Amino acid sequence: MATTTPFARLSADHVDQVRAAASAAASADDVEPLSEAFVLALPREGDHLLALDGDIVVGYASTAEDGSLEAFVTPDHRSRGVGADLLRSALQRRPDARPWAHGDLPASRALGERLGLHVVRELLVLSRAVQPGDEQDPTLPDGIRHRAFRPGEDEGRLLAVNAAAFVHHPEQGDLDAAGLAERMAQPWFDPEGVILLEGAADDRPLVGFHWTKIDPPGGHIGEVYVVGVHPDFHGRGLAAPLTGLGLAHLARQGVSEVELYVEADNTPALATYRRAGFERKASHVMYARGASSPEVHDTVQG
């Protein structure tokens, strides 16, 4: 019988066990149970819940400061009430928590309904195969040029544009210097894959950026990680060529598929991506006890 136990900080052994358990869940469900932010937060102090069968981790839940909650149970301990116990404990500790259900699996929907939760947000995964010609950079508007990110020089400018572009986004808008440094330290980070758009003024203002990702490095799937355009440059038709620059970079790296995440209600972003050939691959849904969702804007603007 598994017991649910809270921890302010996980031991190194617990962190390793959670990662291994998450990998087992991903293999069974064909979807990662924890997002990047939650994986990065595993070694840090936070609101961690472990479902333990003796000394073995069979389930995990965590609630972030913003109230988002992620949880999973290992495949061989499902249908025993472990997931329900984890979510009930997490919601007792944080009544306003909003659980994510990655992959929108039937079992997650059933559990959400049983606990009286409602879907308040949907995040779509879109994908497209790499096609001949994708490796060619698109033409940019007059007065705009692109170049690769320079570590040690561009961090502040990138963060400033990111903050302006995602001021209403509950996750991306909170990226700070520490979070950027943490991501730059990951094995998948490639400065050549962070493409910056600059304006023609003497100070070369940073207009926008397209941050691509290949995880694991050398893998066959590339990701449109973040695309942001500064609000001062919205409406100038930059989103499509900026997206194309990232696709070209990923195609030249040899990936066979490109995927991205976009809010289901972000009509402009969906239109941009569909014009680029992306189609729905999967979805992730967020639940809450209320029926209203936080205001969110997505990664493609302008």
What CATH calls the topology of the largest domain is Aminopeptidase
How do the SSEs run, as a string of H and E? EHHEEEHEHEEHHEEEHEHE
Domain module count:
2
CATH architecture of the largest domain: 3-Layer(aba) Sandwich
Straight-line N-to-C gap: 53 Å
The oligomeric status of these chains comes to single chain
Strand content: 25-35%
Number of helices: 8
Unreliable runs, pLDDT <50, ≥5 residues?
A: 291-302
Described by strand count, sense and barrel closure, the largest sheet is: 12 strands, mixed
Radius of gyration: 20 Å
The CATH homology group name of the largest domain: Gcn5-related N-acetyltransferase (GNAT)
Mean pLDDT: 92
| Category from helices, strands and their pairing | alpha+beta
Description:
The protein is of the alpha+beta class and about 300 residues long. The chain has 2 domains: about 5-115, Aminopeptidase (3-Layer(aba) Sandwich), CATH 3.40.630.30; about 125-280, 3-Layer(aba) Sandwich (Aminopeptidase). Helices cover about 30% and strands about 30% of the residues. A 12-stranded mixed β-sheet has the order 1-2-3-4-5-12-6-11-10-9-8-7, sandwiched between helices. The N and C termini lie far apart (about 55 Å). Residues about 290-300 have low confidence and may be disordered.
